[in-house]
């Protein structure tokens, strides 16, 4: 079935002309998402977008309904679940290069999103569905232009749409002196369609820190599988303690007078030069309690993922938020954090591939460190690692000494004692021998020493 010529006149601009007093309209970024290569949108969730904005969306895209006679009518209102399934079917058709089938399904799913948004009483869900409706129907316009030969592109794919929402479980104790409220209260999500991590930047994806002009000099990778949330809590707390220790060295003057660090790794803004990436291996495998904990600290949102990943065929779900944790009412230093949730289970090696080839490749930090969730750094671990590498550029990698938690308190436990003995012997013998040749694993290293083309 041939596609008839499409009208590109007035209907689209009508989305920009409607004003409603006192009710937030969908921002211009939402009204253009899907039609452009990269768009960042912040979606308020306190008040629902006015119903007429959804009607305008439907009216503005009526010219594209002529692209197929198989699209459901406006009066046919499916459920949210049906709309999501339709968009996922569209993504499958697109990956199989059945472009006309994909266009039909995307149109059907886009109208469905707009339809069901009108019936939602929850402001957050309503606005997310409206945003997804704009994104999908704008993408239909691009796909239809490509089919008609008006767009030159080898393999068409939806544009990148980074969506931000307010952190739902907000705690006023998180707002410390180093972090402004806007950064502290916003969670950003990007569904990543990128078969090969090396293409992350080429496909137009950008990390939030890069967008804001920050280029952290140190990146830390924490790999995760199905561990309990207590392990991540301990690791994040210890990382925050390390940042505080780096800050203290500047305050006491040790970094300038003795053998400490100066410049970006000292002072109040030390946290801006550290980026933590948590990579989870498999959406189905990750612990549900872990996701609940991540949501409680503003680093995950199930509704945001479910709605905005529909129709993308995402291989990775990227959440970004600057954590402001507190312990006993005392604010810890902020932690710039990326949570990468892989759609399918692969391996720890694949998690490292995403970290190095996608995220670190874009940020280009000077130093990188990798660890498993549950690792608890001593408070000066990062300081000594960075100090050694800043002073001696011949160092290509370093590895810490592993110890069991509270070894001497558990001497009567033969399992703990055996583990403690094994760690000590390994550090004395194995690490000493390995230092004479090549390290089999770099826990901490300058980035150029671990990249494949270095």
From TrEMBL:
Coiled coil (UniProt feature): none
Cellular compartments annotated: Cell membrane
Sample GO molecular function, one term: chitin synthase activity
Organism: Hyaloperonospora arabidopsidis (strain Emoy2) (Downy mildew agent)
Enzyme class: transferase
One BP term from GO: chitin biosynthetic process
Biological classification of the source: Eukaryota, Sar, Stramenopiles, Oomycota, Peronosporomycetes
UniProt-listed Pfam families: Chitin_synth_1
Predominant subcellular localization, coarse grouping: membrane
Bilayer disposition of the protein: Multi-pass membrane protein
UniProtKB keywords: Cell membrane, Cell wall biogenesis/degradation, Glycosyltransferase, Membrane, Transferase, Transmembrane
PANTHER family per record: CHITIN SYNTHASE, CHITIN SYNTHASE 1
UniProt name for this protein: chitin synthase
Gene Ontology cellular component list: plasma membrane
Entry EC number(s): 2.4.1.16
